[in-house]
Amino acid sequence: MAKGHGSSIKDDKLYGDLRDEGMSKEKAARIANAKAAGTIDHDSTPLEDRTRDELYDQAKEIGIEGRSDMTKDELVEAIRNHR
């Protein structure tokens, strides 16, 4: 992942990952900067706005089986159905 998205982006890797997932530049920047600032509350962040890695970690925490083979959309569905 290339760095150097500009000084306004506080977490280059997360920004790049979010852009790779198809998120707009503005939304990716907001999420990356919020996470870098420590202001993201995962309980209030919509599942669709999280990265696949964040969803995977949550699925692991709550014990969803088969999570390694799931896509981001499948992880979102599995987490929603688990609650």
UniProtKB/TrEMBL annotation:
Pfam families attached to this UniProt entry: DUF7218 (PF23855), Rho_N (PF07498)
Protein's recorded name: Rho termination factor
Lineage: Bacteria, Pseudomonadati, Pseudomonadota, Alphaproteobacteria, Sphingomonadales
Rho termination factor-like N-terminal domain mapped to chain residues: 46-83
Example of a GO biological process term: DNA-templated transcription termination
Ranges of biased composition (kind: Basic and acidic residues): 40-54
Region Disordered, residue ranges: 25-54
Alphabetized SUPFAM superfamilies for the sequence: Rho N-terminal domain-like (SSF68912)
